[in-house]
What we know:
16% of the residues lie in helices and 31% in strands. It is built from three helices and seven strands. β4 and β5 (57-71) form a beta hairpin. The chain is elongated.
Amino acid sequence: MNGPFVLPVRDIVRRPGEMREHRLVVALAEQWGEGIVALAAGSELDLDVRLESVHEGILVSGIADGEYSGECGRCLTPIVRPVEVEFQELFAYPGEEETDFEVQDDHVDLETLVRDAAVLSLPFQPVCQPDCLGLDPRTGEKLTVSTGSEPETPIDPRWSALQQITDQDGTAQSRAAEKEES
Length: 182
């Protein structure tokens, strides 16, 4: 077995209590993720991995750091953000029970484990900033700043007569001023 995510465990196999730590920097051969954002092919992942021998197999735990890139889900601005994900899985010894991950030829292959954890941590609706206003529905231009007031919505002509009643003699304005004072 070989590959950037394959780690040897020969020296700790069937020796409960033994532990090894590894630091890896892996360049992704292909894109991870299919949504608005993804981890791009060629981008690097920093892995801090701890391998612990237990009675059932090798317990793998660690942290993966990288960057995802894509577009804001509201305004379509290109974004690049860091992603950090923790993972932990037991790689069982072969022949024991049926498991998703097994120790093979005294090696563990972390690619599926790390890919699943990283892709599941990507945001479903990424935004360039928390208060991103998105695009103007009429013009398609990016809304950059809020005016602080709600845009005036057109009034249904059937109700327009009521608008005239509230605006008579400025009573609507004087009532609003009274509410503010109290």
